[in-house]
Amino acid sequence: MRLGSVRGRYRTLLWAFLALGAGLPAACAASGTGDDQPVRTTTSTSSSASSGGTGGQSTTVAAGTGGGGGGETCTSATEQAELVVKPVDIIWMVDNSNSMEPAIAEVKQGLNDFANLIAASNLDYKVILLSERGTSALSLCIPQPLAGDANCGNGPRFVHASVDVLSTQPLEQFLGTLGQTSGYTPGASRGGEPWASELRAEASKTIVIVTDDNARLSATDFHTFPGGPNPFNSTTLPPGILDASYNGMFDDYLFSGIYGWGSAQDPSVKCTYPNNMGSPPSAGATYTTLVNMTGGVRAQICDGAAAWGPFFSQVAQAVVANAEVACNIAIPDPPNGQQLDLGRVNVALNSGDEQTILPQVTDVTQCGTEAGWYYDDPGSPTEVILCPASCDEAQTLAGPDKPGSVEVLFGCTTILK
Questions:
Q1: What is the pLDDT of residue 404?
Q2: Kindly report the CA angle at 275 between 271 and 280, in degrees rounded to 5?
Q3: pTM for the full model?
Q4: Does the residue 138 lie in any domain?
Q5: Into how many domains does the chain fold?
Q6: So what's the pLDDT on residue 189?
Q7: 86: closest CA among 383, 328, 393?
Q8: Contact yes or no for 98/389 (Cβ under 8 A)
Q9: Last residue of a domain, which of 322, 354, 378?
Q10: Cα–Cα distance list, 39 to 29, 353, 413 (Å)
Q11: CA-CA distances (angstroms) from residue 413 to 23, 131, 343?
């Protein structure tokens, strides 16, 4: 996928305004078949609309045609508006053990270029680095412009929480420093500076691990550990990142990494360093599990400097592809001279030549697992909000390099659930 502007070509929302009377001709002329049903329109032309008004399911019709009953027409005017893209938080965790010196140097050299790749997509991004801060060969001091100053300082889009990341304990230290639980606070040998407050609740999350070993905490515990004593030592761990206490902050996150894997089929096989220089301590099977579970990307640490440029690019592409659109869609002003009639608004998802008209529900509690939408404030709405199932479908249809769109249709009787 090419990295391009997400706000625009990738995330364009097409609003079709159907005339309500003044200024546009022949809006929804009656035919005696009942209430009219909206259909897809993309230019200022008349298009047929069939009977509708109520129903319990979404309705799929061919674009530019009626829903089957025919009979009524609406005249449309078209405007375009942006579909807002949520921010992205990218958390890098870099192992500080003795064997990691070459990889640490690559992160220091390449993290600014990585940030530039994300910035080129017009995403609101933040990079959070978990690794020991310093200027030694086994610590990190990220240079400007990502850093805020020449002394490893934080910047507007960059936060470095100093943590001495141990070879087999990155997942434990991720959780422990996130929750600042016993044994993981500043000054503790496994602890580090607080960073949870830097995470944005609305942002999609990507975690990137850089290591040559494996985590002793399982992928399952990283996700769903209930919280309590660390099974490996006397420290305390908070709940796993998919626990309900995080309010969905890490839902649909990506896990990527550059580590010691050596086979696409067998996660126990380690890669081999060039010139018979041996293999890393572990293939990182736990990290392979997390990459596969979340759809992330990975590279082999054995490939050395040659691996890093492509890896930074692949991670950036994955971050962009995983960026979510906000399903709270602002209601634009109707064309000049028109008035908004809340009883004549419909929402449709478009994919190629098919259009799915979603039913309106009263509020989010009525969504369930079915398609639909509702107003933020039924009495004085400013936004149309997609139900979770329709929001998920919109992400699929209107993602990067995908031709789908969301349309809000004004002028024909609202289809109700």
A1: 76
A2: 30
A3: 0.74
A4: yes
A5: 2
A6: 96
A7: 328
A8: no
A9: 322
A10: 14, 12, 11
A11: 19, 57, 6
